[in-house]
Amino acid sequence: MSEFLERFHAAMEGYVWGSPDDPQPLLDAFPEWEPNTERLAIYGEFIQYYQGECLGALYGRTKELMGEPAWGELLRAYYAIRPAHGYQINTLGHDFPGFLAEQEAVAGHLPQVALFELTKHLVYTSEERHPGEVEAPSVNPTLQTLQLTHQVCGWAKAAAEREEPVSEPPPAGEELALLWRNPTSLRANYVAAGPRSLLALKIALEGISVAEAAAAGGVEQEDVIDALREQAEFGLISLPNSFCCEG
Length: 247
Known about the structure:
- By secondary structure, the protein is mainly α.
- It contains eleven helices and five strands; from the N terminus they run αααααααββαββαααβ.
- A hairpin with a 6-residue loop joins β3 and β4 (about 190).
């Protein structure tokens, strides 16, 4: 039975992504099967449309940068070698950034943008729960980091503010992107790591005191406290309730 199902699934994938408007080759491969051919054709067209729309929703900026017909051609090539095995939107395109990186004809910034978009979505849909009250500075459990070769965070924020399709790629340049879900707004936040965010993460991860951090950085303790409070407001870290009275 498993061999039959594997053969049937392979034939169905070929039908959906090969000729969804013509189920006859699929029927010829399984002559004992007598489905409603009209409904089968509708199913084939719907599945192809649905999967394409899901990938376009996950990688909207990537799609805008590529444009047609390049996007459509790459979409078909992707599903030809990595057919979707899930039905949820956040499972259909997990391999897509890696697929892009393997394509010699694809510009180097596109896999970076796609990886950023996927990570942003995974942060948003993460099942990690915010701890609520904490006893010491703690990192947001949904935090993900990306070492990028293009400056995607600022580029993505500017595009979101303009509320219009992008046409220019993000500028080249090393960037450590921080992505996390804000515990208050439940939105996916992202920013290029800077001195204040890295300081807050270092304190939360290593458990060092404000005084130790200030001495190591050659700054005033008030500056460290301000940085911690700022990053806590952004949702990047959590602080004990008692911390509001420090400094």
